[in-house]
């Protein structure tokens, strides 16, 4: 795989960092997740392909274990607020002094500097401060966050992953690692570059929820069907819009111009009345195979059985029969081969990893007795 031979140390955290680590693991990196003592499970469920080491980083001997681990690693991925790693004597100056090739990934909500840098926050807060949240929502309603996908995973985890890949590539020329300051606020704002670059194009002249791409247009929104399902309509271009009108059983010459904004509310009502008369399956029969840009809104239960997704093998099943999306993008020569094994138990690989680092069995036992590390082996009931 593309990242074969790359070793990543991921310090346990919530959603964005585990996602970043999982992507790296999916594409071949060896990822060791360092969990805190007392942790019982990974709440994010994004541990695929990783190993788990439990060590108390607040204890000097525990921090020494991590320094030993990072001395042999390519990437360190940490989720803490600025200053935490420095207080633990685990900051980049210390770790990169011993391992100049180490890429030090710092993924945080507000970044490593600025007045909000040490403040608590979650996806909705980062989304709000990025400016993007102000553009999302229905007309006349409050802005709303589209789950916790944009800041946590798009502007956070995925942007940090891209930074790591770029740093790995640059290291092939300089031989040196570098520090990655991945701010979820800035990552989300960067994702929204299209919104910024098109402000003069007329796409966002109307209030929130009344523009072409934010639910205001009748040809770019969703509609409820007779069976309680939904269809997504994205017929932006005139030729696609014409096919939408045809599929709905309407005639263009009897309707207002597609881009007549004042007529959009009435057209949305007309389209909604028509969509409500047939089931989702019936609308699929009408629009499948056309360029009307009309597709079913699939539930998680439906998406794995959809013909297109089955054609491409877009979803995978692990040994515990849990379904998840296949890693993307699909590389032709070195595609991701995600692990199908169960997720690791917290501390399952502590002893194994310590031995790989050169700790003797006596040293490992002492670390365990002193509560510096935790070892949780899989028990089998016969």
From TrEMBL:
Which keywords describe this protein according to UniProt?
Isomerase
In which pathway is this protein known to take part? Lipid metabolism; bile acid biosynthesis; Lipid metabolism; fatty acid metabolism
> Which intervals of the chain are annotated as region Disordered?
324-344
What superkingdom does the record give? Eukaryota
Q: Name one GO cellular component term.
A: mitochondrion
Q: Name one GO biological process term.
A: bile acid metabolic process
Functional summary from the UniProt entry: Catalyzes the interconversion of (R)- and (S)-stereoisomers of alpha-methyl-branched-chain fatty acyl-CoA esters. Acts only on coenzyme A thioesters, not on free fatty acids, and accepts as substrates a wide range of alpha-methylacyl-CoAs, including pristanoyl-CoA, trihydroxycoprostanoyl-CoA (an intermediate in bile acid synthesis), and arylpropionic acids like the anti-inflammatory drug ibuprofen (2-(4-isobutylphenyl)propionic acid) but neither 3-methyl-branched nor linear-chain acyl-CoAs.
Query: Which Pfam families is this protein grouped with?
Result: CoA_transf_3
Q: What is this protein called?
A: Alpha-methylacyl-CoA racemase
> Which EC numbers characterise this protein's activity in its record?
5.1.99.4
Give the protein family.
Belongs to the CoA-transferase III family.
Write down the chemical reaction(s) this protein catalyses.
(2R,6)-dimethylheptanoyl-CoA = (2S,6)-dimethylheptanoyl-CoA; (25R)-3alpha,7alpha,12alpha-trihydroxy-5beta-cholestan-26-oyl-CoA = (25S)-3alpha,7alpha,12alpha-trihydroxy-5beta-cholestan-26-oyl-CoA; a (2S)-2-methylacyl-CoA = a (2R)-2-methylacyl-CoA
Q: Name one GO molecular function term.
A: alpha-methylacyl-CoA racemase activity
Q: Which InterPro entries does this entry report, sorted A to Z?
A: CoA-transferase_III (IPR050509), CoA-Trfase_fam_III (IPR003673), CoA-Trfase_III_dom3_sf (IPR044855), CoA-Trfase_III_dom_1_sf (IPR023606)
Q: Is Isomerase among this UniProt entry's keywords? A: yes
């Amino acid at each position: 795989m593309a990242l074969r031979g790359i070793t990543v140390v991921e310090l346990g955290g919530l959603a964005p960092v585990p996602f970043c680590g999982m992507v790296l693991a999916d594409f071949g990196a060896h990822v060791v997740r360092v969990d805190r003592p007392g942790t019982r499970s990974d709440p994010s469920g994004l541990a695929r392909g990783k190993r788990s080491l439990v060590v108390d980083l607040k204890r000097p001997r525990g921090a020494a274990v991590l320094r030993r681990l990072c001395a042999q690693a390519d990437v360190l991925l940490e989720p803490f607020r600025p200053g935490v790693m420095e207080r633990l004597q685990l900051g980049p100056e210390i770790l990169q002094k011993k391992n100049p090739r180490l890429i030090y990934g710092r993924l945080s909500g507000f970044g490593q500097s600025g007045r909000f840098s040490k403040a608590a926050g979650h996806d909705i807060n980062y989304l709000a401060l990025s400016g993007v949240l102000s553009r999302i929502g229905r007309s006349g309603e409050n802005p709303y966050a589209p789950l916790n996908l944009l800041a946590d995973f798009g502007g956070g985890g995925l942007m940090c992953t891209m930074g790591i890949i770029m740093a790995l590539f640059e290291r092939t020329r300089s031989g040196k690692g570098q520090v990655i300051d991945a701010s979820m606020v800035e990552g989300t704002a960067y994702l929204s570059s299209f919104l910024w670059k098109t402000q003069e194009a007329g796409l966002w002249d109307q209030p929130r929820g009344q523009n072409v791409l934010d639910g205001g247009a009748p040809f770019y929104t969703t509609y409820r069907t007779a069976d309680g399902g939904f269809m997504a309509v994205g017929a932006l271009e005139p030729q696609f819009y014409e096919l939408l009108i045809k599929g709905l059983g309407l005639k263009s010459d009897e309707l207002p111009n597609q881009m007549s904004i004042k007529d959009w509310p009435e057209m949305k009502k007309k389209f909604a009345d028509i969509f409500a008369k047939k089931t989702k399956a019936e609308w699929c029969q009408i629009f499948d195979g056309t360029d009307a840009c009309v597709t079913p809104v699939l539930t998680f239960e439906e998406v794995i059985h959809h013909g297109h997704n089955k054609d491409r093998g877009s979803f995978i099943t692990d040994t515990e029969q849990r379904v998840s999306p296949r890693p993307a993008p699909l590389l032709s020569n070195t595609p991701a081969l995600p692990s199908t094994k169960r997720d690791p138990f917290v501390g399952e690989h502590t002893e194994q990893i310590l031995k790989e680092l050169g700790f003797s069995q006596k040293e490992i036992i002492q670390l365990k007795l002193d509560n510096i590390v935790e070892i949780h082996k899989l028990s089998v009931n016969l």
